[in-house]
Structures are given as structure tokens and as C-alpha cells.
Specification:
By secondary structure, this protein is an all-alpha fold. Helix content is 74%, strand content 0%. The protein has 2 domains: 130 residues, Serine Threonine Protein Phosphatase 5, Tetratricopeptide repeat (Alpha Horseshoe), CATH 1.25.40; 54 residues.
């Protein structure tokens, strides 16, 4: 059976001094230093999608999944090209697949493909993550008859989506926040039970706004 590509898309070139130093630290495997330097560079250039993307890689290498997802989402928001937006979605899929969070991983690989349909690695990973997600769902369905009642804690993915939605709410982008949480709930079963009140609240506000 084919296997997934678990390699993160490498860092993107940045011209600024701190950015170059951060790239150097990343190449040398000093991810903690790279993390700090990317953040310093972002203080001077807070809408630089490449810096956010590279920060996401440094965080992912440290195992900081929630923070890495947040950085990639920021990278996508500020990216100008569909290809760069696709890279952010691809790397989110990759770190989720590494954690065996198959359904959200498949979702983000699919998002990457929508933005860059010619990416064969994204297609390969999407197909395999979707198979794994389907197998996992079948197992869960079999086990679920004498189970549940107990609420599972939110996954790293669920927490990252909530954090991102809170940022959108702070910017009064309620409809976007609700859409994000609704999409996350469709891909991660811990979202709705843990954040239902939050979702209902922003849904109400977005309805009023509209």
C-alpha cells in the first residue's frame, strides 16, 4: 500500500535580516531559535505570509501543533498567490496526518488541491488520508453503541480552530468565525461538544449582523 508523504514543504525565501537568520537557524535544526527570529521579523512585517509560513514550520518541528496551525492560517490569509495559500493548507494536512487526525488532515489536503489542482503530492496524501479517515470512522461506529455520554477533551486541531475563530470575533468577523467553526465541527467530533455555546453565540451575532 502507498504511504503518506510526511515531509513539510520547506521554508519560503525571506529577504529581511531576521528572516534570513531565522532560515539559517531552521536549516541548522535550531528550531527554537528560528521560532524566536521569525517572531522578531514579524514584529517589523506583521503581514508577511512567508514569515508566518516559516514560523509554522519551526513550530511544527517542535511539536507545537496548535501554534503551527495558527501560523499557517495566518500565512494563508496574507498570501497573495493560490499556490502559497495551497502550501499552508498542505502543511496543516501534513502535521495533522502525522498525529493521525485523519479526517481534518484529508479536509486540508483537499483544500490544498482546490487551490492548486496540479499538486500530485497533495492528491496522493488526500486520497490516503481519506481512506484512513473512512476506516477510522467505521471502527468508531462499531465501538459507539456502548459508549459516549463522556465528553472527549478538544483535540489540538479543535483548539487551534477555536483560537482562530476567537481572533475573527475580535475583528468582528462573526460570519467567518462561525463558518470556520462549522467546518471544523464537520471534521473533528470534539469541536461541537466542547465549543457549542461559543458557536451558538457567534451564530446569533452573525445573524443579527446580517
Amino acid at each position: 500500500m502507498k504511504t503518506l508523504f510526511y515531509i513539510l514543504i520547506g521554508f519560503l525565501f525571506v529577504a529581511s535580516g531576521d528572516g534570513r537568520e531565522a532560515n539559517k537557524a531552521y536549516n541548522e535544526g535550531n528550531y527554537v531559535l528560528a521560532d524566536s527570529l521569525f517572531r522578531l521579523a514579524l514584529e517589523e512585517d506583521p503581514e508577511n505570509s512567508k514569515l508566518y509560513f516559516n514560523l509554522g514550520n519551526a513550530l511544527a518541528k517542535q511539536g507545537k501543533v496548535e501554534d503551527a496551525i495558527e501560523a499557517y492560517l495566518n500565512s494563508q490569509e496574507y498570501a497573495e498567490s493560490a499556490e502559497d495559500k495551497a502550501l499552508a493548507q498542505y502543511n496543516i494536512g501534513t502535521i495533522l496526518a502525522k498525529n493521525e487526525d485523519w479526517k481534518p488532515a484529508a479536509h486540508h489536503f483537499r483544500n490544498s488541491l482546490k487551490l492548486n489542482p496540479g499538486d500530485h503530492e497533495a492528491k496522493h496524501n488526500y486520497e490516503l488520508a481519506a481512506i484512513k479517515a473512512s476506516e477510522e470512522e467505521n471502527e468508531q461506529n462499531q465501538d459507539q453503541q456502548n459508549q459516549d455520554q463522556e465528553k472527549e477533551p478538544p483535540t489540538e486541531y479543535a483548539k487551534a480552530m477555536k483560537k482562530r475563530a476567537e481572533q475573527l470575533v475580535a475583528e468582528q468577523r462573526y460570519q467567518e468565525a462561525f463558518n470556520l467553526m462549522e467546518s471544523a465541527a464537520a471534521n473533528d467530533k470534539t469541536v461541537q461538544p466542547n465549543y457549542n455555546d461559543f458557536m451558538e453565540r457567534i451564530k446569533t451575532v452573525s445573524t443579527i449582523d446580517n
